[in-house]
Specification:
Number of strands: 6
Helix content: 25-40%
Strand order of the largest sheet: 1-4-3-2-5-6
Order of helices and strands: HHEHEEEHEHEHHHH
Number of helices: 9
Shape: globular
Largest sheet: 6 strands, mixed
Radius of gyration: 17 Å
């Protein structure tokens, strides 16, 4: 599956939130019915997604990401369906540059150690949505505090949006496009040693879209 071309700059915008507008007015988050009418947002194909399962593969990923000032960041955990069941996730961590994304499985100790080093690295912004629970699970599982994490929902609240935006709302506002998320992939078994193509595409694009939003916002890291 090849990935469609995407523009080097921001796509056509519905509204570009700024810190100045946040001071003077409040903006509603887009409704799901409004988003459903939009054209789909481009996404990374499998040719731009790398599955990382070993320490050696993680070293190659680290080298490829080294020059990027910011990464899109997300995690996935196997869903829990039993009351009071505690998740042992995350089971994968996704990091993305504008060119490609890496999906790190955390089964192998060496790979887990490299991911911990990446997340603890200072000077690189890790941008994403709904990262509060993700960072808590990472602290518990990997024993590190992710550094320079930017919660994009916070940026939108600072710019006048009343509710959490999420990646779907952010893509609608900034690019006038509909970000497609598969419910089947979202609730799939992320602890499975062999991930499906649908899982890889879902996970990688969550991180990649977050980075696209980060860049479209301008310099949100400076507002933290």
């Amino acid at each position: 599956m090849s990935s469609p071309p995407f523009p080097s700059g921001p796509a056509p915008q519905q509204h570009r939130p700024t810190a100045a507008t946040a001071r003077g007015e409040q903006h509603p988050t887009p409704h799901k019915d409004e988003i459903a009418l939009l054209e789909p947002f481009e996404r990374l194909g499998l040719d731009r997604i790398t599955l990382v399962t070993t320490a050696a593969q993680a070293d190659l990923a680290c080298a490829a990401m080294a020059d990027a000032p910011a990464w899109g960041f997300d995690t996935e955990s196997k869903p829990t369906f039993v009351r009071d069941e505690v998740s042992d996730g995350p089971h994968i961590v996704q990091l993305a540059t504008l060119e490609r994304a890496w999906v790190f499985q955390l089964h192998e100790p060496g790979c887990r150690a490299r991911v911990a080093e990446l997340l603890a690295l200072r000077g690189v912004t890790k941008a994403g949505f709904g990262l509060g629970d993700d960072t808590k699970r990472i602290q518990r599982k990997l024993g590190v505090q992710p550094a320079d994490v930017l919660e994009l929902n916070t940026v939108f609240r600072q710019r006048g949006y009343r509710k959490d935006m999420g990646v779907k709302g952010a893509v609608a506002v900034l690019f006038n496009r509909r970000f497609i998320k598969s419910k089947k992939a979202a609730t799939s078994n992320w602890a499975n040693p062999r991930l499906t193509e649908a899982q890889l595409v879902y996970a990688a694009n969550d991180a990649w879209a977050a980075l696209r939003v980060f860049h479209a916002l301008g310099s949100p890291a400076a507002e933290r």
